[in-house]
């Protein structure tokens, strides 16, 4: 089942649920971080988290080698204020490819209160404080994969169910579990529902994922798209004449490699569209075009004010040499560190996007996709009467999708609680 929604800042997500002997997946968008932490983590504003109290479990390093008994400490969070013990469901919110600093105070909290759910959130291996190794050498990174992460979730589920049972003096109880995730974590939620043997056909590799750029262009509109393409041409030109001065203009003189610099500029534009701030990108450029102001200087101002200061982007995270450091000073390794990123407006080579295969043979999965999100083309978008993108032109669509999600949770909970129901 696929639903679409836009709103002020909607990112592509897959909301996924997991019910007690089985699993149900659902994905919820979270607003981009503000302040010094940026999009990949950092200090939270008051009230931004339900809890930041750290808890720990011993996680298996290699789930596929029975002779390797090594473990590492995996961080997780627990919020029980809304839990209606002992029969309330458990909402498992998957932290994705960044440091997990707590359980976000998002719409998930509203649903937890509605359904009397416990909320738990494990940190992804190799991120934040859950890294098995201090040194990120190639040898040590071989245990970083979505497949290992899925088994981490399975082990965590068993561990936490036993922990909760002990807390409430229960024996052998199995709660109704719902798994939530956004973007990559949303895909993990879907794969978790589909169970491990099916992973080989859930993923579809898309070579040269040009749909991302196409969506950015569509979202920008003709005037803004033309301005961005002109910026591309002018920056390429200035790089050939005096690369240092143009990099200084953008506050990115640390990026010695021109390809890294252009990647940085491309991402700056993409972020504006992906996270619901197209006016921040387009309005200054369109005005500059009309008034004769320098487009490059205008875009540089946007990059410095929005992408670096407001968004909290670290310029060095786009530096290939920095990424070769096996002991970096942070583990907020988002897309530009461990994941292949996307091309935009000819500034980057062809890449591969891993998309959810359109013919997924599974039930009780809800995919929600922002209609302006460039990544939506790598998600499942059509499967039911709810998949009408024409209904997704305002924040009201977000509210509609949320109500649909809550309705599905209510239905699946009632089915799960039927004694004779087989999952």
From TrEMBL:
Coiled coil segments of this chain: none
Keywords: Glycoprotein, Hydrolase, Protease, Signal
Lineage, highest ranks first: Eukaryota, Viridiplantae, Streptophyta, Embryophyta, Tracheophyta
GO cellular component, one term: vacuole
GO biological process: proteolysis
Pfam families per record: Peptidase_S28
Signal peptide: 1-25
Protein family: Belongs to the peptidase S28 family.
Protein name: Serine carboxypeptidase S28 family protein
Region feature (Disordered): 371-391
InterPro entries: AB_hydrolase_fold (IPR029058), Peptidase_S28 (IPR008758)
